[in-house]
Amino acid sequence: IVILTQGVARGGWMISAALRYAWERRACALIVPEQSYTETVIELARRLGVSLLTTERGMTRLALDVAIQIGVARAGSLARVQSFTERVSQAADLAQALDLISSELGGAPVALETSGAIAVSVPGDESAADAEADRSTVRRPVSLTQDGRQSDALSTEVPSPARTFAEQIFSAAIPSIRALLTSSRLQATRESLPAISITALTGTARLRGLRPPSPEFLDDVFRWPVNGDYIAVCVITDDRERVGTAVHQIWNAGFPDVPLARFSDGWVGFVPVADADRRAELVERMRQQLAGVPALGLAVGVSGIRRTSEQAVDGVHEAWLAASVADPRRPGTGSLVGFEDASSRLLDRFLPDDLALQLASAMLPELVADPAAEQLIAAVVAYLSNQGSITAAAAHLGVHRNTLQARIRRAEQLGVRLSPPEEVLPTHMLLAALVRAGSEGGER
Question: What is the pLDDT of residue 371?
C-alpha cells in the first residue's frame, strides 16, 4: 500500500506518477489526502489495477495504523501456515496430504502431476467455488530431474485474491509431499522386486499362456499411484543379469521418477502420459535410445493409454505381448513395438529373414533369379497388404495401376500363386519377409 502525504500529493501528474510507482511495486492500493481527480487519473488507476483511495485522516497516523494492521494480519497468516505445516507433516499418504491442502484453501481442487499427467488429485468442494469469481491457477514444482526438467508439480485453482496464500501453503506442503512421493516410489520398487510378482502378470515364460491376476493383487504389488493417463512399458532380454545395470541407467535417464519392476524375462514400468501426442513423443524417444545401444539386444513393448489402476493388468499384458513380437536384431525400428502395431510384426516372429531367403530360393527360384525380382516381390506384397486392391497398392508404391498389374502377372508367370486361397497367407508371409530382408540389407 502506497500512502502520499499532504505535501506530496499535489496535482494530477503527481498522482499519476504515484500510481505507476505503486504498480511497479505490485501495490494493491494508493491512498492520498482527500481531493478531486480527473478522469485521466481514474482511468490510469483502473488500467493499472491499483485501488485509488482518499481520506480526511492525517496521513502519518494512517500510515502507522495500516502498518499495525498489516503486521497483525501477517502474523495471523504465518501462524496459520505454521499450524498447517505441522498437520501436513503428519499425513499418512499423498491423498491425505492433498486433502489437507484442499481444506486449507477452502475446498479448492488440488492435483499432484507427474510428467504432465495427474497421479493423485482431490476434486475439491464444488459448492464452495464461486463461478463468477476471477480465478487463478497456482502451480509449483515438487521435484526436478537431474537435467533441470520439472517432473512433479502441485497445482490448484483458487480465487485470484487467495493466490498468495495458496503459494504459501504450497511452499509449506512441498517438503512433506516430496517425502511422501519418494517413500511411495521406494516402497513400490521394493515390493516389485520379487520375480514371482510380475511373472504372475505376464505368464511364466515368454511364449506361454497368460494368467492375469486380480486387480486386488495388482494393487498389492504396485503401491505407486497409477491413476491418471499412463502407459505400461515392458523390456525383455535374453540376458537380464548382463544388461540389467545398463537398462536401469537408460531408464533412469528418461524416467527418473518411475520405478522399473523386475520379472522373469525383464522389466516393466508405468509411465504417466498426458495424451496420445505425449505417448508418441515418448515412444520416439525410446526408439532413439534403443538405436544407440544395439548390443544390449533389448525388445520393448508399449501398451495403449490406460487411466485407472484396474486397467494396469491389461496394460502390462499389452506391453508384454508387444515386446514378445519385437525383434532385438533391429535396434530402434523393430526392437520397440506399440501394441497397436503388434499384429503387423507377427510375420517377423513366424518367418525369420534368413529362413525366408532359403525358402524363396527353393520354392520360387525363377522369381528370385529374375533381374526385376525386387520390384515384382514388392508389387505382390503391396497387392496382398491392401486386400487385393490394385488402386490402393499402386498408390502405396507410387506407380500406375497398369504397371502394378503387369508386375503381378509377371510374378505369377514366375511361380507366385495368388488364386488358391490356401496359398495367399503363406505367399504373403514369405514375400513380406523378403521385402523386409531387402530393406534392412539396404540400410546396412
Answer: 93
Residue 128's pLDDT is 57
Does residue 219 have a pLDDT over 60? no
**What's the mean per-residue pLDDT of the chain?**
78
Rg of the chain over all Cα atoms, to the nearest angstrom: 33
Burial of 76 (0-12, 13-18, 19+ CB in 10 A): exposed
Cβ-Cβ contacts under 8 Å for 341 (sequence gap 6 or more): 322
Range with the lowest mean pLDDT among 113-127, 137-151, 370-384?
Answer: 137-151
Mean pLDDT of 133-147: 75
CA distances from 343 to 336, 350, 356, 367, 422 (A): 13, 12, 19, 27, 20
Q: Give pTM, 2 decimals.
A: 0.46
pLDDT band at residue 197 using 50, 70 and 90 as cut-offs: very low
Who's near 254: CB < 8 A, 6+ residues apart? Answer: 285, 286, 289
List the grid coordinates of 94.
499423498
Between 276-291 and 240-254, two packed helices, what is the crossing angle to 10 degrees?
130
Check if the beta carbon of residue 317 is closer than 8 Å to that of residue 202: yes
In this predicted model, which residue has the larger pLDDT, 92 or 359? 92
The most distant pair of C-alpha atoms in the chain lies apart, rounded to whole Å, by 108
Half-sphere exposure of 195 (CA within 13 A, CB side): 7
DSSP state of 231: E
Is the distance from CB of 339 to CB of 319 less than 8 angstroms? yes
Distance between the two ends of the chain, CA-based, in angstroms?
A: 72
* Helix/strand/coil for 13: helix
Q: Which three cell numbers stand for residue 81?
A: 501456515
Q: Calculate what percentage of the chain has a pLDDT beyond 70.
A: 80
Give the three-class secondary structure for 333. coil
C-beta neighbour count of 14 within 10 angstroms: 14
Q: Is the dihedral of CA 344, 347, 348, 350 positive or negative?
A: positive
Nearest Cα to Cα of residue 150 among 189, 192, 113? 113
pLDDT of residue 332 exceeding 70: no
Residue 302 corresponds to which cell in the numbers above? 508399449
CA distance linking residue 47 with residue 354, whole number of Å: 75
Give the neighbor-by-neighbor strand order of the sheet with 51-55. 2-3, 29-33, 51-55
